[in-house]
Amino acid sequence: MSAREAPTPYWLGLLPALALLVLFLVPFGIMLAVSVAGREAGGFFTWGFDLASYARVFSPFVGRILVTSVAIALGAAILAVALALPFTVILGGMSRRAQTVVLVVLLSALSLSEVIIGFSVNTLLSQTAGVGNLLAWLGLLEAPRAFTPGLFALMTGLVYLSFPYAVLVLYPPVARLDPELAQAARTMGASPLRTFATVTVPLLRAPILGATILVFVFVLGSYLLPQVLGRPQHWTLSVHITDQAIYQSNLPFAAAMAVLLLAVALALVGLSLLVTRERRTGT
Amino acid sequence: MKRRSFLIGTAAGMSALAAPALLRAQGAPLKVGTYGGFFQDSFDQHIFPDFTAETGIAVESIGEPTGEAWLVQLEQAARAGQAPADVSMMAQVARLRGERSELWAPLDETAMANLGNMPEHFVHRYADGRLYGTGAVSWYITLVSNTDVYPEAPTSWQALWDPANADRLGLLALASNSFLLEITATTFFGGTDILGTEDGILQVLAKLAEVKPNVRLWYRDEGQFQQALASGEIPMGQYYHDVTGLAAAEGQPVRSTFPAEGAVLDSGSWVVSKASSMVEPAQVFIDYMARPEIQAKLSRNVGTAPTVDRALTDLTDDEFAAVASDLPPILPQYELYIDRADWVNQKWSEMITG
């Protein structure tokens, strides 16, 4: 129980604690202070306590944008995890060497910036240079057309961006799965698909939920892809925060919307903690 | 003895601390911000070297992001006593917002002999009469089109509303940089007077909302649209006359048209951050930029319209026609984006995302 016996010296914990304080809590404090600062019409802002920005946040307009943001993030999270799960299970059944190669490729995809992904998907789905030309050449389309901007293009970009994260969260529990459980199901006559649906997926319920929440929170803050690949009705709260902060120099309103976004994100982290606790008490 | 050595030590320490700062101030270049990309490249090539050769003031060229992003950075930096650029070129909405928060350093008019070349609306003063900036360049926002997709040039802003142009337009995403309220008011309501009341603004917004099915891209980033226009992906829209002219000169299939209702005439002004310690060399620079021959040089090389009276310059009719038009321009109603900014922005956002 004494500190001397601890494998890791406690003071090492001071470093991340300090980083958390400097890089998160202090900026967050500033953001809270700015969100109640007074907006000067046509100017900048003055420090003070004014709830006008929050009054503007709790409006049907911002509510609608928040619903849009949550729906887009949830849709992307479900799609990304639905694709990542079978991918990871198949990956887990491959040889060690093959797994390493696939994981390295996946990790290298993480190094692509959101800007590159956004403009690549935009080009890929464009009328002049995109897949529409291929489809027209194959006779599936009468004339090449664009598939961007729109919900399809936006989802493609968001799922591409978040897929590696979903795989990386799912990979450790999948690698630890006891292969004998699936083999037992197979010897008892279950088809591979049935085995996947009734044995593998239920065993991975908690990691699936965890991956979904991670991708959801990750996508909730995305601001570039909705601008490049979406139409104005798909602009997320982050896009509007940027518009207010950067283009309208209305930092109090931007900060108040950011506080709202953070509250929603925190509520979901709370949800994930609840799920983890359930899993612990369940085993 | 102790006291003496302490004093010596302190004096030495003080001078050691002060000396590098002094040296740095003497040798420090004047940081001049212009819009990154084409503008900055042109200034680096055509303006800054000659300015340094004549005045001995070295210039460090800073690339600014477009519009108000730079204003926010200057405001935040000034609160921390920093100036990311000493002199900045600011569009009018940002310039006026900076005036409201007294972000710009007052300038000494007696040190600026060329101030008289500027028309009154390009001499910017605080309410109490202190000078803080001058017009830098003027530019037009025109109707642009891809020449492959549209062999015939469009002639009117009404082309934006033409059902034949469904999903083909690129327009600026914000009320305060697109000036689409002024364009709509001039095209359909006989002028910008209707924008004087909130009821009038709502009427104009309703008319503008009809354009939405034609808009493929509401752009914030100029580069995003320029590329799509040249490739024909988004073959029509609103864009800057100067940059479009340059792209056409490079052989890209694009053209800029002054519509019958007039093009939007906007401008950038030189201002100095109040956090700058280089106000004097900044004044030399701003005064240099107000010379008619420098304004003519900008028109020839950057494609911007002069901010001094044309008669003062040696621009030929052809040279002037390339950067400007005799048609009466559509003038932005800047007060919409200053005094009514939050209301207009809210209604605009509701219109565009609805």
C-alpha-based Rg of chain B, rounded:
23 Å
Q: Briefly, what CATH class of the largest domain in chain B?
A: Alpha Beta
| Overall pLDDT of chain B | 90
Number of domains of chain B: 2
Number of strands of chain A: 2
State the helicity of chain B in percent bands: 40-55%
CATH topology of chain A: MetI-like fold
Multimeric state of these chains? heterodimer
Number of strands of chain B: 10
CATH class of chain A: Mainly Alpha
The general outline of chain A is globular
CATH superfamily of chain A: MetI-like
First-residue to last-residue Cα separation of chain B: 80 Å
Order of helices and strands of chain A: HEEHHHHHHHHHHHH
Low-confidence stretches of chain A: none
| Residue share in helix of chain A | over 70%
| Alpha-carbon distance between the two ends of chain A | 26 Å
Q: From the alpha carbons, calculate the radius of gyration of chain A and give it in angstroms.
A: 23 Å
CATH topology of the largest domain in chain B: D-Maltodextrin-Binding Protein, domain 2
Strand content of chain A: under 5%
Structure description:
By secondary structure, chain A is mostly helical. Chain A has helices at 14-35, 52-57, 60-92, 96-110, 114-124, 131-137, 151-176, 179-187, 192-203, 205-220, 224-229, 237-247, 251-282; strands at 38-39, 45-46. In chain A, a hairpin with a 5-residue loop joins strand 1 and strand 2 (45-46). Chain A starts with 13 loop residues before the first helix and ends with a helix. With 354 residues, chain B is an alpha/beta fold. Chain B contains 13 helices and 10 strands. Chain B has helices at residues 2-27, 38-55, 68-79, 92-100, 175-178, 180-188, 198-209, 222-231, 241-249, 279-289, 292-301, 317-323, 341-353, and strands at residues 30-35, 59-64, 87-91, 123-125, 131-146, 169-172, 215-219, 236-240, 254-257, 264-272. In chain B, strands 1, 2, 3, 4, 5, 6, 7, 8, 9 and 10 form a 10-stranded mixed β-sheet that branches. In chain B, strand 1 (30-35), helix 2 and strand 2 (59-64) form a beta-alpha-beta unit. In chain B, helix 6 (180-188) packs across helix 7.
